[in-house]
Write a structure and sequence with these properties.
There is one protein chain. By secondary structure, this protein is an alpha/beta fold. It has 2 domains: 132 residues, 3-Layer(aba) Sandwich (Rossmann fold); 138 residues, Rossmann fold (3-Layer(aba) Sandwich). It is built from 10 helices and 11 strands. The model has no long low-confidence stretch (mean pLDDT 94). α2 runs parallel beside α3, α4 crosses α5 and α9 packs parallel to α10. Helices cover 38% and strands 16% of the residues. The strands form 2 sheets. It has a 6-stranded mixed sheet, sandwiched between helices. Strands 2-1-3-4-5 form a 5-stranded parallel sheet, with helices on both faces.
Length: 330
Amino acid sequence: MSAKGVGYESPPTSGPKPKAGKNIWVLSCSQSIPSCSYPAAQTVEAAKALGWGTTLYDTKLDPSRITEGYRQAVAAGADGIASYSMDCSISKAGLVAAKDANIPTVAAEALDDCGETLFSDIVSYTQGEFPAWWTQYGAAQATNVIVGTDAKAKVITINQVDFPMMMPTLAGFKAELKKSCAGCEVAQEVEFTVADIGPKLQEKVQQALVRNPDANAVYVVYDMLALGPDAAIRTSGRAKSLFVATAEGQASTMTELRSGAIQGAGVGIPQGWEAYATVDTLNRIMNGEKQAPSGMGLQAYDKTTNVPAEGRWEPPLDFKGVYLKTWGVG
């Protein structure tokens, strides 16, 4: 991929004036996991830029708490609800309550998998709706693995199976690996759920590495190395020989790549941009308008390319500056 990435364009440069005095609820998938807490914080930041009040609710990756979060937002008279990485199928009761109360709900990185439309909208990308973008994201991770192993990959995939939204990217990864690399294969699929995060997941990955001494690559569906896989890789003594297909580019992951603690490459996820697009869409819905094209695309990174000197990966455009100007607040 180029320095600009694939499909990145400007966020919307025109839009309705923000509705004053609104209060929204932000449902975090888990405040203990950076892949969830960062986009939640960015959503709060964007809403505050519009002068809106916010309530942050931690669902702790628990479907019952997801439903409770929506219901509490409804009871509190929220003007809108924003969520991240929570599919319709695990949020249905809460979404029904919000819809019945005429409260707009906008999600980022979620599947509309209820058989009926309950989300008011889901953030989209230049590649299309979330499933299309997410599938291409997985394919881009596979390309990284193919290049990083000289087309001789024997991959251990680490897949979370209790959230449906994880499935399209894994499918995209496996399809691209099969299509584009005759000398590549998936050596083993390690499946885990929320309950496994931590020592159990570490043990699962350790066992997979022992069973597959010729494995030369590890794929993670999101940047959860610190939740168990990283310790397993270090314990194996193979950190320097395994190519790690990293994901969105959390600060901890980028630090490990820059320092050489792990070898690999990833595909950035513009989580801050997704958050701002979520708030922008809520504002448009409140003004009787539809979602505007977000401009988000795909961009690969490694130790030397598309990586900042410090901190997390960031997308190739100043999306915040554009949104603030569009909203008339910057």
